[in-house]
Write a structure and sequence with these properties.
The chain is of the alpha+beta class and 82 residues long. It has one domain. The chain contains two helices and five strands. Strands 1-2-3-4-5 form a five-stranded antiparallel β-sheet. The chain starts with 5 loop residues before the first helix and ends with a strand.
Amino acid sequence: MVALDEATAYRLVMEAVERVGGTRRIHGNPRHPFSFDATREVEVEGYTVLIRYGEISSPAVAEVEGYVFEILADEVVKLFGP
């Protein structure tokens, strides 16, 4: 696969976030950190996007190919990339 640029990574993350219910659902429904469903993997255009639900001591994040985005109630913000 071709290395992702930031815009493509953001688009893939947004698609994955929408597939699992949107930013409010992910941000507003914290999971227990050791629960079976604390993470979700979503395939988007051949890439695996990992979504980690937030909990009391850590934010909700989405990861794809080295890019990490924080999932807030109304937006998704890039934290860092490769």
